[in-house]
Amino acid sequence: MTRTYLPGVLAMAAIVVASNILVQFLFGQWLTWGAFTYPLAFLVTDIMNRVYGPKAARQVVVIGFVFGVLCSLVGTQIIGEFGPLVTLRIAIGSGTAFLLAQLLDVAAFDALRGGKWWRAPLVSTLLGASLDSAIFFTVAFSGALSFIEPSNDVAWAGEILPLLGVGPAVPLWVSLAVADWGVKLSLALLALIPFRIIVGRVTKNTQHFV
């Protein structure tokens, strides 16, 4: 790790910490404010990958993972209205989803590196974001995985309701996952703009462009 990577490290740490805080605040019926900050982690990973290569991107991902674990440990010690803010299932789901999704993003980006400038960041983020939502919500809230933390009652997440209030009947956690996934996909498209701008500016001042 070099000082050159410091902006990426600080950005990833800030995003992880902010998202862990903002996830406590609801935005509408299906989302939290954290849903709008967390996807920026993919932007940081992709910029690091484009400018410095996959090794640097993976290093930043690992640091983000460590910060996420620390945030989860702190959350387990804070008692809210319904118990600890972070349960074992949420901690496992969050950490596993972040690490696997970000590493998939890094690998996919590297595989598509030689194509049009937008293809690698867009496709890698879509793949990583989809895996992230699938892993987190399944591990954290699916009734089929209640054995992970038997003492944690997540029956509320299994309530059968119309998908996003209008679709077929599904468990509530599925609607939460779909809403979260939709935000990630939307931000993946919007993130192409800052990706292009930031990469362009950074590569003017560095010879590490790959």
Structure description:
A two-stranded antiparallel sheet has the order 1-2. Strands 3-4 form a two-stranded antiparallel ribbon. Strand 3 (79-80) and strand 4 (83-84) form a beta hairpin. By secondary structure, the protein is mostly helical. The radius of gyration is 18 Å and the shape is globular. Helix 1 packs antiparallel against helix 3, helix 3 (40-52) packs parallel to helix 8 and helix 6 (119-141) packs antiparallel against helix 7. Helices cover 65% and strands 7% of the residues. It has helices at 6-22, 34-37, 40-52, 54-76, 88-111, 119-141, 172-190, 192-204; strands at residues 26-27, 31-32, 79-80, 83-84, 160-162, 169-171. The chain starts with 5 loop residues before the first helix and ends in a 6-residue tail after the last helix.
In short:
This protein has 210 residues and is mainly alpha-helical.
> What gap, in angstroms, lies between the N and C termini?
17 Å
Number of strands: 6
Shape type: globular
Largest sheet: 2 strands, antiparallel
The computed structural class is mainly alpha
- Percentage of β-strand residues: 5-15%
How is this fold's topology laid out?
Layout: H1 6-22, E1 26-27, E2 31-32, H2 34-37, H3 40-52, H4 54-76, E3 79-80, E4 83-84, H5 88-111, H6 119-141, E5 160-162, E6 169-171, H7 172-190, H8 192-204
Antiparallel strand pairs: 1-2, 3-4, 5-6
